[in-house]
Amino acid sequence: MDIVSILISLGQWIVSFYYSPFFAVIKFLLGIYAVVLLADIVLMLIQRGLGGDIRDTLVGMNVPAELTTKRNRLAKRWSKISEKMKSDSESAWKVAIIEADNIIDDLIKRMRYPGENMSERLAGINPGQVENIEELRHAHEVRNRIIHEDDLKLTRELADETMAAYENFLKYFEVLE
Fold this sequence. Notes:
With 177 residues, the protein is mainly α.
């Protein structure tokens, strides 16, 4: 027996199996299984509350669009802030930190973390929810010092460290690379 006749007989066996009553029963049962799975998915979506925010359903939490579909827009805003950090001016660094803090605060607020201000919202975030939450809290403290202390001397190292914390938050959500 040569290889061609083996392949021909194998092909005939596959065709006869495909049209056999046994395979028809398997196809019927798989069809029922597919319908049941589809019904389960629909029921789970209804139970979860599909009538709410679709991002809650798809992502698992209410993530602002800038962290999902509009990343490029946020990345462009961030690049403008990063340009200020390239300056040798301490006042430009302070402005960049304040603007970065405002962006992150807006994102956290729209993620529906409770609190009247960013400090309260950051306190409401568990360390397991956001990877660098402690760095973010420290960065916000630096921002508060910039706002409330008129004679604050901001060093290049502290400014870079603060901006790195904000960048790490955006990298965590894959806005920045």
